[in-house]
Amino acid sequence: EIVLTQSPGTLSLSPGERATLSCRASQSVSSSYLAWYQQKPGQAPRLLIYGASRRATGIPDRFGGSGSGTDFTLTISRLEPEDFAMYYCQQCGSSLSGTFGPGTKVDIK
Amino acid sequence: EVQLVQSGAEVKKPGESLKISCKGSGYSFSNYWIGWVRQMPGKGLEWMGIIYPGDSDTRYSPSFQGQVTISADKSVSTAYLQWSSLKASDTAMYYCARRDSISSGGSYYYGLDVWGQGTTVTVSS
Q: Which pLDDT tens digit goes with each residue over B58-73?
């Protein structure tokens, strides 16, 4: 089973700063199957990025995804107040597995 | 509007059985995989398993195989998650989500694009 590791565990930044979140897989993952989600307290997760780099419908262009193989990155170019939240990567595997990473919390510095 | 609506919060005792539901609307329910995700209090997201309502093909995460049963009734556009004997450690929020495949440039890309609002399950004596 593929294991996903996210770093850092917590990222403390100020509004307007750039956030870079990492997701590393224990074995190679097809980019087609790598997704990122945002979750705010008391809410269901929301799909941000699918296929490693494609923004989901309605997601602002300050969110960007990149990477391949075992290393993937979510970048938020300029943090807005509503971006402070938890972020999870997930591999939606070809075998219909769906492992999530442990998450990165982006909080206000 | 495409949406998944989950059943309401449950409070149960250890050893009791439970079945929670996830009803889809606004799309062809039979043609999309529905996944279930657990989130224990203050913790991250855990993948439980997935079902294709069209033929009830079901896959479980190894961590949840034998612990829960995932089913679906396409006639009422509803997926289910059930336990035969609850434990205190089953206390959590449970989400259902639709697995979408998006075609672009001849390739397909995948993600959980629509989520239910979550069902809180509390197991306590």
A: 999 999 999 999 999 9
